[in-house]
Amino acid sequence: MKVELRKQRFTPWQEIERRQTLMQKDGQFGAVVSFIGNMRDSNEGDNVSAMALEHYPGMTEQHLEKICKQAEEKWDLMEVLVIHRVGDIEIGEAIVLVAVWSAHRAAAFEACRFIMEDLKSRAPFWKQETLEEGKRWVEKNTPGQS
After folding, report:
1. Exposure b/e, 110-146, CB count within 10 A at least 16 = b
2. How far apart (Å, rounded) are the C-alpha atoms in residues 55 and 9?
3. Which secondary-structure segment (H or E) carries 37?
4. Closest to 129 measured CA to CA, from 8, 55, 57, 46
5. Nearest-CA neighbor of 110 among 124, 98, 121?
6. Whole-model pTM?
7. pLDDT confidence tier of residue 143, bands split at 50, 70 and 90
8. Which of 49, 55, 69, 134 is the most exposed place for a label (fewest CB within 10 A)?
């Protein structure tokens, strides 16, 4: 398992490939499921030009690690990778990557969604958007599971 918070940009597909190479488990996994969340140019009907993402150092990483451990206990997984941006984020940049490797697709799909939904609803992150009229704190996330 790897959990990392980054201030700098990252390319999700390169991160997946890098992690998969480090795993040295070619032929052992049958599924890789990933979720990539990108910075949009709008939210709640308003144009957004940038975002600042704050976190609680130490606590945020612990929370993400706990989510990943829960997923590993619930499903038969080979590897979990979570990379999340913090700091200033521009339109189109990747904000979050969750990738899960498993022998079977069901476990990979379910674990990836579980991690992402918990991350969006409970992890200690705070978003401040830059709008034409100024800045605002995001009070709620877009709905996930129905």
Report:
1. bbbbbbbbbbbeebebebebeeeeeeeebeeeeeeee
2. 17
3. strand 31-38
4. 46
5. 98
6. 0.94
7. low
8. 134
Structure tokens at 76: 């038969």
Q: Which domains does the chain have, with CATH numbers?
A: 2-137 (3.90.1170.40)
Quote the CA–CA distance of 85 and 43 in Å, as a whole number: 18
Closest-CA residue to 43 (of 89, 76, 74, 97):
89
Which amino acid is residue 24, in one-letter code? Q
CA distances from 68 to 6, 111, 128 (A): 18, 9, 26
Give which of 9, 92, 84, 80 is closest to 53, Cα–Cα: 84
Query: Could you read off the pLDDT of 103-117 as tens digits, one per residue?
Result: 999 999 999 999 999
Beta pairing, strands 77-85 & 125-131: unpaired
In the chain, which residue ranges form alpha helices assigned H by DSSP?
A: 12-23, 59-74, 105-122
Q: Which pLDDT score, from 0 to 100, does residue 121 have? A: 92
CB 24 within 8 A of CB 78: no
